[in-house]
Amino acid sequence: MGRKMSKTLGNVIDPLDTIKEFGTDALRFTLALGTAGQDLNLSTERLTSNKAFTNKLWNAGKFILQNLPNENDTSAWEEILSYKFDSEVTVVNLPLPECWVVSKLHLLIDSASASYDKFYFGEVGRETYDFFWADFADWYIEASKERLYQSGAGGKSVASVAQAVLLYTFENILKVLHPFMPFVTEELWQALPYRKHALIVSPWPETQLPRNTCSVKKFENFQALVRAIRNARAEYSVEPAKRISASVVANNEVIEYIAEEREVLALLSRLDLQNLHFTNSFPGNADQSVHLVAGEGLEAYLPLADMVDISAEVDRLSKRLSKMQKEYDGLIAKLNSPQV
């Protein structure tokens, strides 16, 4: 739990030294995450974690800026700025990853606004931290790369939707975080194109904006599938760069929205897009595949031939079995030896 900070104990932390090492915003954010009325364990681990969060925020801003059009490209910017996310129709008609992240953002804004009104600053910080890192950075930014680098028919339009969602989501994250982290958020805000006013005088995000709970649920199923495939790859030590085949088994309704995002699924799971199949029944090679259950009514089959070198895997497991057998025999021998 830590010890109480006092001059007598000589364990007082100088905030100026802390700022020098971790940054002003990281210190402010760490202190704000505490629960009102309770002691705060001001540990180096927390400060380090929130410094990493600040760096993550900066890197996300850098990625978004690098993937926005040049400010002089007026036609591209007209298309991006034409997207508005304040109507039910607009949000529902977005592609699944975009609809999911915008819906989650609108839920965050409502929750953060309510918590700010009640002075539950720690709740705001934790919810925003989780949304930014776990949803926006880890999932949507990664999914957006497929849109941003897409070429061919419709590629530019798809990219502009992703750019609009990236910009919209990020600027609202900056607004929610600004009271906690005024310096880094203002710096990032000023770097965004077409900023007429400083962040500190910008209006607070609107509340009660539309969200689609059905799309949120669908994308959660999509995430479960990606996680299951990633876990299987890790368990079988598949090389990160290697793309593998997969068969996704589900009912027609689930297959429809999963297959529509096949490129994103292939990108996030490192699958071979040409050998990614969707079906209602077990694939013909099911008995020679790794079977994954991602959720109720959503399964996947990964051919073992893609996952492992069979002969090398047999050799590895045989050596492991031999080692475990020796350890077992040694333990049995100790148990059977006469007590001294």
Q: What would you say about this model in short?
A:
By secondary structure, the chain is α+β, with helices and mostly antiparallel strands. Helix content is 61%, strand content 9%.
Instruction: Give the number of domains.
Output: 2
Shape: globular
**SSE succession:** HHHHHHHHHHEHHEEEHH
Task: Figure out the total of helices.
Answer: 14
Mean pLDDT: 89
CATH topology description of the largest domain:
Isoleucyl-tRNA Synthetase, Domain 1
User: Structural class of the secondary elements?
Assistant: alpha+beta
Per CATH, the superfamily of the largest domain is Isoleucyl-tRNA Synthetase, Domain 1
Largest sheet, spatial ordering of strands: 2-1-4-3
Q: Tell me, what is the CATH class of the largest domain?
A: Mainly Alpha
Cα radius of gyration in angstroms: 25 Å
Helix content: 55-70%
Say how many strands there are: 4
Q: Could you list the spans in which at least 5 consecutive residues all have pLDDT below 50?
A: none
CATH architecture classification of the largest domain = Orthogonal Bundle
